[in-house]
Amino acid sequence: MAAGDTDVKICSNALLLLGANEISSFSDGSTQAGICGALYPQIRDYTLAMAPWSFSLKKVQLQELVTEPVNEWQNAFAMPSDSLTGVPRAVFTSAAAGVKPVASGWEVLNQEIQTDYETIVIDYQFRPSEAAMPTYFVNLLKYVVAAHLAEPITDQITKAQHWLQMSFGLPMEGGRGGAFRQAVNI
């Protein structure tokens, strides 16, 4: 894990990659801090949602809601409040070992899984703290943040293009090259 990493530290390092000054907080009064504070949460969540990173996956048995769905389903289960995407990665009908995920017989509506199954266990993606993110992902995140900050901070589109290429590779790699590919392979 990247002990000591914070949202501000990741943004500060991205600013350094751009040749800009570091920030001490998102509210330190600088233009850079304001831009980082506004953009960083979306950039982080977008980058997390790009792959099923093992450090951002959880398995949990959901609690059935008291109110029944107003459609064809019999039961409703609330998605966890810390779900990053609002959609499960896999749905199971039991917490027993060896149970295979079910691909049908459920749907997600209004942050609920609606189904006729009586038990729902899901694998889902959550937003870990920056301190819990491994170094390879923090490095990717710094590059992606630099790519998004480049134009508003430096007013140089070529710097944005450079950091996008460092993050995701050449256009022919379909956004799956560069630091992203390295992180996924780790």
End-to-end span in angstroms?
Answer: 13 Å
What composes the largest sheet?
3 strands, antiparallel
Helix residue percentage: 25-40%
Enumerate how many helices there are, as a single number.
5
Q: Mean of residue pLDDT?
A: 95
Q: List SSEs in N-to-C order.
A: HHEEEEEEHHH
Strand content is 5-15%
| Rg calc | 20 Å
Show unreliable segments. Answer: none
Number of strands: 6
Shape: elongated
Strand order of the largest sheet: 1-6-3
Given the helix and strand composition, which structural class is it? alpha+beta
Write the layout of secondary structure elements.
Blueprint: H1 7-17, H2 31-49, E1 57-61, E2 75-78, E3 90-92, E4 106-109, E5 112-115, E6 121-125, H3 135-154, H4 157-168, H5 178-185
Structural descriptors:
38% helix, alpha+beta, 5 helices, three-stranded antiparallel sheet, single chain
Question: Your description of this structure?
Answer:
This protein has 186 residues and is an alpha+beta fold. The protein is 38% helix and 13% strand. The strands form two sheets. It has a three-stranded antiparallel beta sheet, with no helix packed on it. It is elongated and about 55 Å long. The mean pLDDT is 95.
In brief, what are we looking at here?
With 186 residues, this protein is of the alpha+beta class.
